[in-house]
């Protein structure tokens, strides 16, 4: 049990309406292994190698390796997404897509007449730095909670915080973008009364009827993040290289969700549909250094600033029940805000083995806890600061380890191999919150559920996914001709996520001296998220066509 004072109505009402969350901060900040086929086939371990156009988005100092030779290249890609969810019935889905993942132009100027400055290079290019195009579905035949109960808890908490805990009719508002009003107007929620018949809030239809249910969640998610890069790099004495990249970022994400709850042996149901589109643009800088203590050994260092992004969410939802053919009003709602994505630091080293090949290693650290939301002119920064505090509490630095090798079988033909491992940007406590385990007090008196809405709920989208570890296994080869080259790569990515249809919420138990008494126990009506393991196997085939002149 815990006690919450009644707070200002405007604060909670605004929170219900927009609710930018921690999972979204991760979604806007994640990138994937992207670039030319040579870069991808070596697991992206290229920070100290250079001489590849992907240096613009990795360590721009590597652009200085080009000496007097200009280059243009482009990389088409075919990707197959395979997802598997493990609910009561295992569901597999597959999706194949095509994209242009990389397009670059590098021009090199000899400057040997300038003394120690050997050459100065400029690069411009396009890089597809994040791409998700997947479908997944989960089914639970005997869940321990319901979407209706989740809505009821949200509604009761809202009524408490607006001082209207005994007037459920207050939920009949003209705000179609709000899930609570959708639930009340479509009869997924009922008025709740005590033994004396007094109104005491709302309950869900299944709670009122004592019904068991089955749940089906279907999601289609398509995310694309593109970078347009302008780079410059210089080479001093073939020993010290420095580079700078200005990146303009374009982001677009669409999440289409369909949720169904069937109540057994009654013919009753609740269907909920939601579309959330997040789009925006921003800029970042990448600074890099590369040092060759001896000709065969290279050391690289790079720093990526946050991406300063301006975002807009466009979302709408609709809810249906069997009650009188009930259908909630539907509508579209826009919310504008800004976000600063995490900064990133990279350290790399490589050793060139004569004319036969090279081995390289790279470590990247991306501090997701440094991400933060900023207000737009029409919004309240105090609300976003609550989310920013939760980001600091629950996000952590992501550690990325890359290793790659290249073997030159002949002067014109090379074989390549690479591996990349990424840790989760979420602390263990996030998964504890999903599972309903107490963690945040040393004496064990803390209760779960307090941060679930800020962690997981996004506008009218209650479902969410949380990324765990990721592995990339990479192979490839390349041919060099006179003034041209072709590189091939195959990347097999394994990714783990946990998904849920709605977050955990506490239940309203009553009042004690004007304070709301909230319970975290399911027997009191609290909702524990039914999280499901999802595995993704993403296979990509790349071919880079390049021309040197």
N- to C-terminal separation?
72 Å
Number of helices: 9
Shape: elongated
Query: β content, as a range?
Result: over 45%
The assigned structural class equals: mainly beta
Low-confidence segments, given as residue ranges, are: 1-18, 437-449
Strand order of the largest sheet: 2-3-4-7-8-9-10-13-14-16-17-18-19-22
What is the chains' assembly state?
Answer: single chain
* Proportion of helical residues: 10-25%
Q: Strand tally, please? A: 22
Mean pLDDT: 83
Biggest sheet, open or closed, and with what strands and sense?
Answer: 14 strands, antiparallel, barrel
Rounded radius of gyration (Å)? 27 Å
Task: Describe this structure as you would to a colleague.
- This protein is mainly beta.
- It has nine helices and 22 strands.
- The strands form three sheets. The protein has a 14-stranded antiparallel beta barrel with strand order 2-3-4-7-8-9-10-13-14-16-17-18-19-22.
- The N and C termini lie far apart (72 Å).
- It has helices at residues 9-17, 22-29, 37-41, 147-161, 179-185, 205-209, 381-394, 428-435, 452-456; strands at 2-4, 71-86, 90-110, 117-140, 189-193, 199-204, 213-236, 240-263, 268-294, 297-304, 308-321, 331-340, 344-353, 357-367, 372-374, 397-408, 413-422, 464-480, 484-500, 507-512, 515-519, 532-548.
